[in-house]
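Try it yourself: sequence plus 5CA, in.
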Amino acid sequence: MRLSRYFLPVLKENPAEAQIVSHRYMLRAGMIKQQAAGIYSWLPMGLKVLRRIEQIVHEEQARAGHIPVLMPTMQPADLWRESGRYDDYGAEMLRIKDRHERDMLFGPTNEEMITDIFRANVSSYKQLPLTLYQIQWKFRDEVRPRFGVMRGREFLMKDGYTFDLTVEDGLHAYNRHMVAYLRTYERMGLTAIPMRADSGPIGGDDTHEFLVLASTGESEVFYDQQVTELKLGDRAVDFDDRAQVKGICDEFTTVYARTDETHDAALFDQIPEERRRVGRGIEVGQIFFFGTKYSEPMGAVVVTDKGERVPVQMGSHGIGVSRLLGAIIEASHDDKGIIWPEGVTPFQAGIVNLKQGDSATDSACEALYAALTAKGLEPLYDDTDERAGAKFAKMDLIGLPWRITVGPRGLAQNKVELTCRRTGESEEMSPEAAVARLVEIYAAHP
Ligand code: 5CA
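Structure, out:
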């Protein structure tokens, strides 16, 4: 993309309404625009990162064997009357009447609707196990929408629903999600720690939240420092291997890590003092196993091999897709701007032309642009007439992990400069070597 033809409405001033750094940078970098409290338009660069996050979520769900669907945002109230949640859900649910005076709602979550799909189409244990998921907009009329996309009213969620015959099978589905989520967050450059949690209005006894440590997080967290050192990495996982999947879950949930909802001071005190930590975290996902809470009242039953009719065992599993943009920025920024992890960056590299209009630098930039594009990378080429300082400041603000600077002086020796946004370190090399280096770096971030 050439910056001269892009739509990147960067703000010079700090927007007064933004209290935390991620909100401030998302507004300043022209990623989002507020349309009403907690409701945002996604401008091109914000949308690009959102799509990258969605793509990682889809790939990791596919790896675990889960199947994508798409349900509507609008739901009939009658489904929620069946589960008993229509009255329970309270003021957070946006209730709407259609022209025929029928009660509708903008879905805050989809347990009822997916149960309806299941009961209409599945009747035998032979069709299990089944996991269906979607990435779809949700609406929750939060009392205090704040911090930009972090606590929105309209927000994008990945919500997955598991259907199994037995409790044991249902718990394997729960574990499978935990492992799939670990890799999902790691690919986004995040350390997201699973912590035992409260289930709230979704229900059930088994539930974990995934928390990204950040001082601006809304949850208080208590943990053993060792938990932050655990990594799934690229180890091979067979998602049908129950023992392996459970083993990984045990590895990540045995070391103490709890939110204030489930914190146990006596257990915490047993951790050696130098490893005890109290901090704050951003909840980027939550998984639940709630058995027959919805299948029983809604009649989602299957026939077993013995001919018995039993309600199906269910769980639901959510990732805060739009919230993740805020969480990634909270975890990865400096005083100049965002520092995108390679896995989610909107463009893989920026190209800065120090002397726009000079035929040698212009053509060297064009050649770099073409070479990177030919390798499947997407550069953002600042081909505007702005002075170098302004170009650098903009690149730092929008946070592309790598920048190639092209100027007449370096080119005289066939050199460009490759700069790492995170460390600030620069290295001079030939344009071909810069392309080869970026290809190598991104090969590790598919
Ligand atoms: N049905 C279940 C899982 S599919 C569910 O709704 N779970 S949830 O309530 O925990 O939401 C899933 C994730 O959505 C949360 O972990 C959080 O990351 C994100 N989320 C929840 N509320 C908001 C909000 N108001 N703004 C942005 N993200 C949110």
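One thing you can check immediately is this: The two ends are 20 Å apart (CA to CA).
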